[in-house]
Amino acid sequence: MQTRPTRRTALLLGLTLAAAPATALVSRYASPADAAVQATGLDDPAKKEIAMQIVCSAENSSLDWKAQYKYIEDIDDGRGYTAGIIGFCSGTGDMLELVELYADRKPGNVLQKYLPALRDVDGSDSHDGLDPNYTRDWKTAAKDTAFQQCQNDERDRVYFNPSVSRGKSDGLRTLGQFCYYDAIVMHGPGNGGTSFGGIRNRALQKAKPPAQGGNETTYLNAFLDARVWAMKQEEAHSDTSRVDTAQRVWLRNGNLDLNTPLDWKVYGDPYHIG
């Protein structure tokens, strides 16, 4: 099993570490119906489940994404603790917003007492006020279905829904929407050079998406080229196998709807969804 890569963070937005992810796209208090778009692509429940498994293969070397609610560790990437199903980080604001949401929904929960410390360490790799019991209490909270739902909802609000919506507006089918989602998970939302917006802008300089009259395969190749370039800007992301031996393979095979069966490799490890 390969060492886990570092996750996407606000540092990659071309901003400072203190900058939180761009979460204004969908209100955290919006109902699922308010945030939803017509389920005709990656947001189809079956396709979304596939997306969660593929991302988990790259982020956690497993297809069992639901086992990651309890995951938490400091991977020594300068972002403090990384945790949960999408890699919420104590140093980049999204973990703070997750714990705030949990406190709103379930006052008095086991993590609420850490909110002052999470506010203090935001923008740094510090554990001040979190150690020695934060990891233990996170794992306790992860057994609570209310906290699991908070993780699901924040994943959708900040990452999944915006990337699928942007993909649909660009005229992309399911694979293209997934390429957007995987990019925003690693690189974060925003318009910095190595953020999702920066990657998309770099692709647009080379090709047009279908919504602008371009060829979908040509555009996605340009997007993946831009994605690989962005990954290589940081040593921790320099292994590009999640693109080269997964997304690029499906694109080359013409599987624009991300239909099963799917076979791919990440960091040399093989995966299969039947």
UniProtKB/TrEMBL annotation:
Under Enzyme Commission nomenclature, its number is 3.2.1.132
GO BP terms in the entry? carbohydrate metabolic process
Protein name per its UniProtKB record? Chitosanase
Species lineage, top-down? Answer: Bacteria, Bacillati, Actinomycetota, Actinomycetes, Propionibacteriales
Q: What's the stated role of this polypeptide?
A: Aids in the defense against invading fungal pathogens by degrading their cell wall chitosan.
Q: What is the organism of origin for this protein?
A: Kribbella pittospori
* Chain ranges passing through the membrane: none
Q: Mind telling me which Pfam families this protein's record contains?
A: Glyco_hydro_46
What positions constitute the catalytic site? E59 (proton donor), D77 (nucleophile)
Broad class of where this protein is predominantly found: secreted
